[in-house]
Amino acid sequence: MTDKRIKGGVATWACLPGFPPAVIFPFTPGERFGVRSLYEFQMLMYRPLYWLGRDGAPEIDWDLSVGEEPVWDETGRTCTVRIKPWKWSNGETVCADNVIFWMNMLKVKGPRFGAYSEGYFPDNLVSFEKVADDKVSFTFDKAYSTNWVLLNQLTMITPMPKAWDRTADGPADATHDIEQAEAVYEFLMAENGDVVEEDNSHRTRWADSPVWSVVNGPWRLKSYTEEGVVTFVPNEHYSGPNPPHLDELRQVSTKSDEQQYELLQSGDVQVGFLPPGMGVQPDGDPTKGGPNPLGDGFQLEPQILFNINFMAVNFSNPTVAGNMIRQPYIRQALQSCFDQEYGAREVYQGYGWSQTGSIPVLPKSDLVSPKIAERGGFWPFDLEKARQLLADNGWDVSASPAVCVRPEEAGEGIPAGTELSFSLRYWEGRPSLARLMAQFRDDAAKAGIEIRLEEVMGSVLVAEDGPGEKRMWELSCWGGGWVYNYPTGENLFQSGAACNFSNWRDAKADELIAKTVTTDSLEALYEYQEYIAEQAPVIFMPTFPRRLFEVAGNLRGFSPINPYGLINPENWYYVEEGV
Q1: Could you tell me the fold of the domain covering 307-540?
Q2: In this protein, which residues make up the domain named Solute-binding protein family (predicted)?
Q3: By three-state DSSP, how is residue 87 classified?
Q4: Of 398, 434, 425, 393, nearest to 314 (Cα)?
Q5: What are the angstrom distances between the C-alpha of 215 and each of 137, 159, 212, 336, 568?
Q6: Where are the domains of the chain?
Q7: What pLDDT does 482 receive?
Q8: What pLDDT is attached to residue 579?
C-alpha cells in the first residue's frame, strides 16, 4: 500500500504565543528582527539573495537562492554575483537594479536594519555597482573570510522591486540616486505601519497594498485579520523552483502554549508544537523525538537550530541597577546562579542542553572552544562561587538581598547601602519559561541577589527591551536568543550593533570580533568566544529545540528541518494514507 498525493488543501500553522508577524517590509529594524517576522513570514513572499539551509544542513541552498555563487577576483577583495532572471508578480524581472536599490537603502539607513553592525556591511565596502543588467559587484576594503562574507554579509540582501522605489508623491529613483533613499525608506516604513504598535489594524491593509502585493516568492499574502490570522495563497507568477502544492497556508495567533495545544488536539491546526515540558526525551538526545503525547496521528519533529539562548542585561540603564550591571563580577555571579542542567533535565524534560558561551553547542561542530567545552563554560552553576564573587567585591551576603558595605570595592556609582536587586521581565504565556525564571530567582536569592519577576507579552517585550540608549529595563528574557549564519559576534556583541541587545560596548571584544571576520582560523574564533564567556555580557541559558513540532500525519514535505529556522511550506502536501 502506498500514500497517494492530494492536490491542494489548506494547512493551518499555530504561531508561537505573543509573536504575530509584526513587519512586512524586509528592511526590518532591530526591535523586530527575528525568526517570526523574517523567516516564517517575509521570506515566503520576498526571497533573499541567498537562501540559508539545504536539506537540513547549515549551508546555502543555491537552487532556492536568487543569486548565483559569488565569483571572487584574484585580490580576494571583489566578488561578482549574477542574479537569476526570476519574475516579480507584476511581470518585471529580478535584476541587478533590485539589489542596488537595497544596497543604497542599507548605505543610508543601515543602523535601522536589524543585521547591521557598525564598521561591517556596507561600511566595509569600497564600492558596489551594477556591472550588467543581471550582475552586481562588491569591492571590500580588505580581504575577508569568503565564508563569512557569504553567510553573514551577502545574506543580508533582499532584492527590492522597482514598484517599491517611490514616495507618497509618486515614483522615485533611489535605485540610481542614493540621495532619494531616505525619503523612499520613510514612505515604505509608513506603508508598513508602526513597528512597535501591537494592534493589528494597520496589518490588515498589507494584503491589498500596491507595494506589498508585488512579490517574487512562492506565496502572496491574501489577508491579515484583526484577530491575527494570516492567510497565504500561491503566487501565480512565481518563477522559481518548487511551486506550492497547497491551496492556502494559514497562520493563526495563539495566546498560550496550552491554547495552541488544544488546537492541535481538536484538529483545527495541522502544524503546531508541544508545549515545552510536555514532551519527554528519555534518552537525553534532544535531536530525536521521544514518545508523542498526540499519538500516531502526528509526527514529532524537534526543531534544532544553529542558535544560542540568553537573557540580555541592560548596560545603558542610567540608574544604580545599570551601574551594577556594568560590573563584570556581578554578571559573572548572575551566570553562576543559573542552573542550566536543571533547566535542560527537569524543565525541558531532556529536550535541552547547557549553552556554555557565544557559539552554538548543537548541531555539533569544531567551532566551540575546547577550553570552554572542557570547563562547561567559564561560569557554570555554582552558588558558592557567586557568593564569593560578591563578598570579595564589597557586598554583605549574610542576608538576601546582599547589601553594599564597601562601595569603593563594589564599583562606580554603587553607594553604600545599595541592595543587590534586579527586575527581570520575561515572555508571558510560556509555563516552562516561567518555571525556569522562578528557579533562577530562587537560586539567585541563595547567593544574595534578589530577582523581581514580571511577565510581559512577547512582542511587547522585544519591542520595549531592545537596544537603545538610556532604556530603563534591567534584565530581559524572551526565552530565546540568536540564530547564527556563521557564529562570529558582530551582530550581537560588536559595539553599536543593531542587535546588541545588552547595549554592551567593549573595545577588546570589538578587536577580537574583527579578527574572526578576516580569517577562517578557528583560533581567532576560540579567542573571541572565550573572552565573551568570561565577561558575560549576557546571561547564557539552556538551549532547546525552538519547537517540538507536531505535524499532522497526512501532511508531508515538512522535514528535514532547516537549521536556521526558515520554512518552505511550498514543499508541503497532503496524502491519502493507505491507498
Answers
A1: Dipeptide-binding Protein; domain 3 (3.10.105)
A2: 69-499
A3: strand
A4: 425
A5: 24, 10, 7, 48, 16
A6: 46-200, 307-540
A7: 86
A8: 43
Q: Where are the alpha helices (DSSP H) in 46-87?
A: none
Q: Please give the single-letter amino acid code of residue 122.
A: P
- For 558-572, write each residue's pLDDT tens digit: 999 999 999 999 999
Could you read off the pLDDT of 488-500 as tens digits, one per residue?
988 899 998 878 9
Say how many Å lie between the first and final Cα of the chain, rounded. 6
Give yes or no for a contact between 172 and 508, defined as CB atoms under 8 angstroms apart.
no
CATH 3.40.50.10610 correct for 46-200: no
CA distance 487 to 491: 9
Question: Would the CATH topology of 46-200 be identical to that of 307-540?
Answer: no
**Whole-number pLDDT of residue 2:** 61
Contact in structure between 128 and 137 (CB atoms under 8 Å): yes
pLDDT of residue 20: 79
| Strand, coil or helix: 249 | strand
Handedness of CA 199, 204, 210, 215 (dihedral sign): positive
Kindly report the pTM of this predicted structure: 0.80
Scanning the structure block, which residue is given the C-alpha cell 574583527?
Answer: 514
Cell of 323: 551601574
According to DSSP, residue 78 is labeled E
* Contacts of 508 by beta carbon, 8 Å cutoff, 6+ apart: 531
Residue ranges, the chain, pLDDT below 70: 1-2, 277, 577-579
In this prediction, residue 515 carries a pLDDT of 92
